[in-house]
């Protein structure tokens, strides 16, 4: 295996050199691109040895102050001795963008050149100090064939462009804002362009440009609206204005992640730009707005103030996810928005923390940085910022943000610097709160009620179990938001391992709605009665509490079923659903969540050991109970909402259709055929697949025919192929379909990633056998994308003995001399001990 050495946060050292300016020239050719990099260097101490990172580069020449030097290589770095305090270094390298299937550095996507430099991709473009605390002013000259690549883009402002001999042309860009190299970007291609403009609060006009594949300009309109809304929102909410003359977004289909915040030139996965009613679901529209906002917000939280080192990634990502979540609740917010955020934490993040990849939101050790773009750093990081926001209040949080920018604009800083700004602006002590940055794992919050002589109170205690990376844990300060049904709301600040709170006098013991709005990323242990849970499910004013109460009931029920026993929770759950389905409709988004039977993945989070067959059977049984007992009322509600042209109604219709797929077989078929938009069509198709209806083959075939020209839509088809029962025996055929492409991570993630993450057939002998062939092939093409798919397999110790053996053999078999550093790090952790 190509193991990378582990780096530690504790070993941070300032760079030996600073680079104040970098002049780049790209002579673009499909397979032989030449990069000339001229750096203005100054010593940052006394060490005369300049050590530059570089990977997959062909070195052409090195000149120091105009004189050729012969550098040496040490541990993969280029080492140059620099005698003077400052110098000019010129390095020429050659690279092959067409052969680059890893999609890091400079590569070609659908006939266009583009770059991806975060986290450590710039070292695949030239030898450089590839670390975020080296900030330079970039000037970039791009040269390419004019007919094939009429548009030449890079960061900042366009300063010059013109014709060259041999049908070539050039453009020179200058970015006045010093930036780390991970924010560098270059794009060259032939795109359709959607333009607009935005006038900032201080009256500057900004040109807005979105570049998309030919023929798809109108599908960028929604993204453009979201961009303008984001720019206005950041001014209104945080007083933050855009700082260049133009803001560009390019949509590409070959991309490892969602999108990238390169200064002034964001590059997006096309699926987070392109949308119209016929091809995108309501959820797709919301995701696009959230990601557009996220990347735009990085201009301040990430770019103007950046990270000192990659251990601080949550400094920009946790904060920016929190900001995009705030934005989303203003933009298209519904009661389901927060519920879905909590679901990400409770299904994905809690699992990550319970497995071999457990790490604090600020990791202490990293080998391959790509592996740390995790739900922990991003989403748990956002929960930590949310707790700060709640603790300090809106005005206090804003004061902290203002101070953070005042102190650190133009700098590369740490998470401590951020929390210190929050503390100083509010004159509070946040030293204990910083524990959230150091400690991994999920606190278990145990709630005990005290009810004596008409006095009601709560005894709260917290305990974080040890994780794979960290044995010792301590208590963390956390807000516990509650409602006493009929008596109002409160937030209890738990500071210690255990604390008692008196909540007043009552005639009857009140019903407690715990953890309103998912106020802290914890697991709740609370022996509340089944009747109280049913009451919460129907009546709590907080949407998260209602969905969580339903889950807690189902958890009890499924636990009993797994032991071969019955449980009264079944009747209570059905009765509450009946109540919800027959009452006047007040919140369709929320009901859409309540009418979903939890996924097998969500159920896995309820138990330490995974009885996969038991959970699959339990889920089927829940679905059939609902159908048998509630068909009439659910069908009435379905009839009531199915033709309403409104987002919430569509969400509820899709949930009901999924629940009732089997008895409504013809209804599913009609719904699909008569769909007025993709939300309806995809919802009906998904219902057919979920119910494994006889007509699902025909519908999938029809869908592929209608949308074969649209890769983003075909990803929905690939996902359903990955999810459906009988997926494994059809894989060969699906992979031969023109919609599939081994080299495109959107395609492989949709089919193979979905299969691994959601399909129980993955956990069969044949499934493991198939993966032992597919994963090495994928890893050789694109290590980063492959490593992002295997997460569920790393949980192998939680499965039954037979699956444990199968998974262990699979993971061991993946460790070969050819395994990438990305996958190798994960396998090493999973198999350790
Ligand atoms: N910084 C990007 C974001 O907004 C994440 C990202 C995009 C990324 N592409 C990447 C991270 C490639 C690592 C590698 O969240
Ligand atoms: Zn981000």
TrEMBL record:
Gene3D superfamilies for this protein: 2.60.40.1840, 3.30.2010.30, Neutral Protease Domain 2, Peptidase M1, alanyl aminopeptidase, C-terminal domain, tricorn interacting facor f3 domain
Keyword Protease belongs to the record: yes
Enzyme Commission number(s): 3.4.11.2
Enzyme class: hydrolase
Alphabetical keyword list: Aminopeptidase, Hydrolase, Metal-binding, Metalloprotease, Protease, Zinc
Family matches, as InterPro entries: Aminopeptidase_N-like_N, Aminopeptidase_N-like_N_sf, PepN_Ig-like_sf, Peptidase_M1, Peptidase_M1_dom, Peptidase_M1_pepN, Peptidase_M1_pepN_C, Peptidase_M1_pepN_C_sf
Domain Peptidase M1 alanyl aminopeptidase C-terminal: 530-832
Domain of life: Bacteria
GO biological process: proteolysis
Domain Aminopeptidase N-like N-terminal span(s) in chain numbering: 52-183
Residues annotated as domain Peptidase M1 membrane alanine aminopeptidase: 223-433
Chemical reaction(s) catalysed: Release of an N-terminal amino acid, Xaa-|-Yaa- from a peptide, amide or arylamide. Xaa is preferably Ala, but may be most amino acids including Pro (slow action). When a terminal hydrophobic residue is followed by a prolyl residue, the two may be released as an intact Xaa-Pro dipeptide
GO MF term set: alanyl aminopeptidase activity; metallopeptidase activity; zinc ion binding
Cofactor: Zn(2+)
Residues of the Peptidase M1 alanyl aminopeptidase Ig-like fold domain: 441-525
Sequence similarity: Belongs to the peptidase M1 family.
Known role: Aminopeptidase N is involved in the degradation of intracellular peptides generated by protein breakdown during normal growth as well as in response to nutrient starvation.
Entry protein name: Aminopeptidase N
Annotated organism of origin: Gallaecimonas pentaromativorans
